[in-house]
Amino acid sequence: MENNLLFPPYFSSKKDFNRCIECESKACVDACKENIIEIKDFYPIIKFGVNGCTYCDECAKACESDVLKIENKKNINAFILIDSKKCIAHNQTVCFSCQDVCEYNAIFYIGMFKPFIDLDICTSCGFCVGVCPTDAIEIKVT
Predict the structure, then answer these.
(1) What's the pTM?
(2) HEC profile for the chain?
């Protein structure tokens, strides 16, 4: 299993995902209303793009292998960061795309420019990833 995979936020241990290899239903994929869960090498992973994770619990409720469980709910295993070289707001262009979509109010600006993500507030939901016009939002898997 690769170390740079984003997993649904309901697991106890990454080794538990080995049970996914034998799961044929892939119910977690179908249960995801945001369509961000896909199967890669038998494992359910999160693929940010158009949407992010609402932490709705549906993938955990649908999991037939007991890999994903509501009682294990946590933030997604990543840090979300802004690359200042790619970010147009860091380069004197007004843009609030990432902040506008952030439900957790985790993105702050210095004046109208230089956005940064407060990692103590950010849940790594990923909604900011797809709205960035310059792909300045980076995902660092933990």
Answers:
(1) 0.91
(2) CCCCCCCCCCCCCHHHHHHHHHCCCCHHHHHCCCCCEEEECCEEEECCCCCCCCCCCHHHHHCCCCCCCHHHCCCCCEEEEECCCCCHHHHCCCCCHHHHHCCCCCEEEECCEEEEECCCCCCCCCHHHHHCCCCCEEEEEC
